[in-house]
Amino acid sequence: MWHNYTKRPVVVQAVRLTEDNVRDIASQIGAHLVHGGKGRRSEISGIAIQTLEGLMTANIGDYVVRGVQDELYPVKPDIFNATYEEAS
């Protein structure tokens, strides 16, 4: 039988990936730069992140979230904005 649950409020760290910070974020978390996309092979399009589910890509504009167990994962902006709000 299905039951209803509410997600517990937890504080996580997150950063939105931009062209200006992509190299710094990749360096901080040990991620590899991803090149290409939209006909631009030489430009950086995101980073490859090792997650609990395997290797995933965070594209420019996505958020990189550090979870409660220090795990990393990418989140698309629309999902991030619907799920998270800035903690005080």
Your description of this structure?
With 88 residues, this protein is an alpha+beta fold. It has one domain. 17% of the residues lie in helices and 34% in strands. It contains two helices and six strands. Strands 1-5-6 form a three-stranded antiparallel sheet. Strand 2 (32-35) and strand 3 (44-51) form a beta hairpin. The longest helix has 8 residues, at 22-29. It is elongated and about 50 Å long. The model has no long low-confidence stretch (mean pLDDT 92).
Summarize the SSE layout with pairings.
Blueprint: E1 13-16, H1 22-29, E2 32-35, E3 44-51, E4 54-59, E5 63-66, E6 72-75, H2 77-83
Label this structure with key terms:
34% strand, 3-stranded antiparallel sheet, 17% helix, 88 residues, 2 helices, alpha+beta
Number of strands: 6
Shape: elongated
Summed over residues and divided by their number, the pLDDT gives a mean of 92
Q: Work out the radius of gyration.
A: 15 Å
The number of distinct structural domains comes to: 1
* Largest β-sheet summary: 3 strands, antiparallel
Main sheet: strand order: 1-5-6
User: Into which percentage range does the β-strand content fall?
Assistant: 25-35%
Q: Given the structure, what is the number of helices?
A: 2
Give the class from helix and strand content and strand pairing. Answer: alpha+beta
Give the fraction of residues assigned to helices. 10-25%
Order of helices and strands: EHEEEEEH
Enumerate the spans where pLDDT stays under 50 for 5 or more consecutive residues.
none
Give the termini distance in whole angstroms.
38 Å
Quaternary assembly: single chain
